[in-house]
Amino acid sequence: MMKKVQVLCYTLMSVLLIITVSACRPQGRTYYKNLLWDYAEAHETLVFSEIFEFDWDIAYYDSKTYSRGEHLKEKYSLEFDVEPMMSEEWGRFLFFSESNLIHEFWFSRLEVYVILQTDAFYPDTVFNVRWITRQGGDNQIYRDLELTEQV
Length: 151
What we know:
Layout: H1 2-24, H2 29-42, E1 45-47, E2 58-62, H3 70-76, E3 90-97, E4 100-108, E5 112-115, E6 120-121, E7 126-135, E8 141-149
Parallel strand pairs: 5-8
Antiparallel strand pairs: 1-7, 2-3, 2-6, 3-4, 7-8
C-alpha cells in the first residue's frame, strides 16, 4: 500500500513539474507568429509593442542570407552573436534593450513581407497591414502578410 502511495505522489509531482516547466519555457517563433497573425487579422495597423510585450528599445530587421548580422553591427555599432540564416526564405527581427540583444524572432519571408524606411524600428513604430493572396506552385492558395512602415 505504501509503495502505491509513493508511486502516486511521484507521478503527481512529475506531472506538476512538466506543467510548470512548459508554462515557463520561452515563447518561441510559433507563439509570436500566431500573435502577429491574430493581431494583423483584427487591425489595419500594427504596433510591435502590442505583440512583443517584453521590454525593448529598438529592433532591427535582418534579411541578409548567410549573415550573422554583420551589416547591422557595422552600421549601428552593435555587438551581438546570432546564428546565420542559411536560406533566403528567412528574415528576423532582433530586439534590443539598452544595447543588448534580448530576443530574436525568425519568420518566413515567403509569408511576411516587411517594408521599412531603414533597418531599425521602435516599439511605437506603426505599420500598415495588408494581406496578399497568391497561388503557389502546388495550386494552393496562400495568404501572406505585408507590413509597411508608416511614414
